[in-house]
Amino acid sequence: MKKIGMSIVAFAFAMTIPFSSAEASGNGIWDFVGAGGLWYNSSYGFYNTWAHNSWGGDFMIKTGSDTPNAKYKLWESDPGSNNDDYVGAVFLAPGDEYPFRNINRFVDGSNNQAEFYVTANNGGEITFYD
To answer: Is the distance from CB of 100 to CB of 60 less than 8 angstroms?
Structure first.
């Protein structure tokens, strides 16, 4: 009877641990690296975020709960004109998240990091995880 009671307590405790799709390879936990709005870039005619750093591996973006359904493109920022690298695109609804996998090839520069930003045809909020 004591074993059954302990099993129930252990199960109840395990159910209090939050489950999330926010897991990365490496240490198994996504690290928050920043959040911000998509602002209108009149030079290019689309919305974009500021760049956020990544050590490589996987990189995830998550849309805000009020961010519209849209196609979001991930880019890696490099110095100079027209030197940014296209990483990929994904269609996301409000509150959706998407991990871009195996992005090591974009790690560069003296800081050995990739600098990622998002573009879209609309405003909204994006959260970044590495």
So the answer is: yes
